Amino acid sequence: MTPSDTSGSPGDGPGRWSDLERPPLNATALRRGLVVPGGLWTEFEVVQATGSTNTDLVTRARAGAPEGAVLVAEEQTAGRGRLDRAWTAPARSGLFFSILLRPAAVGVPTERWGWLPLLAGVASAGALSRTAGVDTALKWPNDLLVTVAGEERKFGGILAERAGDAVVIGMGLNVSLRADELPVPTAGSLALADAISTDRDPLLRAVLRSIAQWYGEWCRFEGDPGASGLQESYAAGCATLGRQVRAELPGGRERVGEAVAIDGDGRLVLATEGGVQEPVSAGDIVHLRSVPREE
Questions:
Q1: C-alpha neighbours within 13 Å on the C-beta side of residue 83
Q2: How far is CA 279 from CA 99, 222, 249, in A?
Q3: CA 226/CA 203 separation, integer angstroms
Q4: Which of 80, 91, 95, 119 has an alpha carbon within 20 to 30 A of 52's alpha carbon?
Q5: 3-state DSSP call for residue 75?
Q6: pTM for the complete prediction?
Q7: How far apart are alpha carbons 96 and 92 in whole angstroms?
Q8: CA 227 to chain centre
């Protein structure tokens, strides 16, 4: 695969404007607005297609790529979600990108790195709510939700991978995906949620600027989720809290209970039968029903 930037010019390739409702990203303008002196983002590249931006950027991270590298693909042919699940979508129908961070370089202890995918979720949900005019919510640990026809739908996912002293965070966000293109009936997109804009350039710019702002604050407090405000903000935007859920855990185990808190390590705390509170650090969460809150 030969990397090549998408500049937004119709003459750059025969297939790039095959769907006029899905124009290519303007890499030149995005780079100019994001890679600025003193900013987090140091490299910005758009490729036409690749298997997985995370796989590519992990390889670059191990070869010494700098913090702040951003790799975006107009199409992913082997995109991965959590638990190595496939993530597929038509070309230019969403935002598929990965970012490279080196929190150790600014003194963040490794035990706090688990907050990075949650940080990306908070930053992205806020940016998309403002820019697309759509209410977004977080599903613990790494999903983004919108409401389509009165139902919660997943429209985005986050995958974080360690690469030595670096962390690569990949994101896939369904932007203009139509109903007949959904990978599963329970998926969603910004378009299906009646977004006021599905222009991917300002959406991506807003998400990356929001991540940079949140990351800077988190690093300023050495990754402390409480002092940086990250823990409170995640809890405020998390649709999982206050719900009866089933946690499908590694090894085929499961727990059912009310999701009552996000603890200082980013774990979901369940109140199970008998009043026992049990933190869950990894697993799939299934929302069962809402729990009425006492006034």
A1: 10
A2: 29, 23, 12
A3: 28
A4: 119
A5: coil
A6: 0.90
A7: 9
A8: 23
**Using 50, 70 and 90 to split pLDDT, how confident is the model at 25?**
very high
Identify whether the C-beta of residue 267 lies closer than 8 Å to the C-beta of residue 280.
Answer: yes
Crossing angle of helices 230-237 and 116-132, rounded to 10°: 60
Check if the beta carbon of residue 164 is closer than 8 Å to that of residue 61.
yes
Q: What is the mean pLDDT of residues 140-163?
A: 96
Residue ranges of E strands in 115-163: 137-139, 143-148, 151-163
Residue type, 18: S
Residues 6+ apart with CB under 8 A from 220: 228
Please say whether the beta carbons of 288 and 244 come within 8 A.
yes
Residue 165 neighbours by CB under 8 Å, 6+ apart: 102, 104, 105
Q: How many residues does the chain have?
A: 295
Nearest to 262, CA basis, from 222, 214, 226 = 226
Comparing CA positions, the residue from 29, 215, 27 lying closest to residue 105 is 215
Which residue has better confidence, 118 or 13? 118
pLDDT of 11:
36
Pairing of strands 43-47, 69-73: parallel
**Distant-in-sequence contacts of 158-165, Cβ < 8 A, 24+ apart:** 158/117, 158/120, 158/121, 158/124, 159/54, 159/80, 159/81, 159/82, 159/117, 160/116, 160/117, 160/120, 161/54, 161/58, 162/113, 163/58, 163/61, 163/62, 163/100, 164/61, 164/62, 165/102, 165/104, 165/105
What residue type is assigned to position 144 of the chain?
L
- Tokens representing 250? 């590694």
